[in-house]
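#lab-general

N.A. 3:47 PM
ok so I finally got the sequence cleaned up, no stray characters, all 122 residues accounted for. can someone with queue access submit it? mine expired

B.Y. 3:52 PM
send it over

N.A. 3:53 PM
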Amino acid sequence: MRPRIGEAALEAAAPDFLREFGEAPHVRGALHFGPVVVGEVGGRKRDIVFHGDAMNTTSRLEHLARELDQRLVTSDDAWHRPPIPDDWAFEDLGPHALRGRSRPVQVYAVSRVTPLREVSIG
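B.Y. 4:20 PM
back already:
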C-alpha cells in the first residue's frame, strides 16, 4: 500500500513518537453502509451525533481490523456501493460474527495496489 500524504507524515514522525512515548501512531479504518440518524445536541457547546446500526457495525469492523492487523476493512454491504478505484485490492477475510449483529458480516481487507511500471530490457 503506497502511503498518502498523512500516512507519510506519520511515518516520518514515527521515530520521534517512539523516542518520546514508546509507541508510534497507526491509522486503521472500516467501511460499512446503512442508514444513520444524525442529530445536533447541546446548548452552549453543540455537537453533531450519529446513531444507528451502521455506526455500531462500523465500530465493530474497526475493532476487527485491529484484531486482524489490517489497515482498512469493509463489509460486503459497503463493498458493493461506491465505484471501486482501479488501484484498490480486496482480500476476502470471510464472515465474522460481530457483537450486536444477528448474522455474521462478510468482511474484506482493502489495500492499494502499486501500478506496475513499464521497464525496457535490453
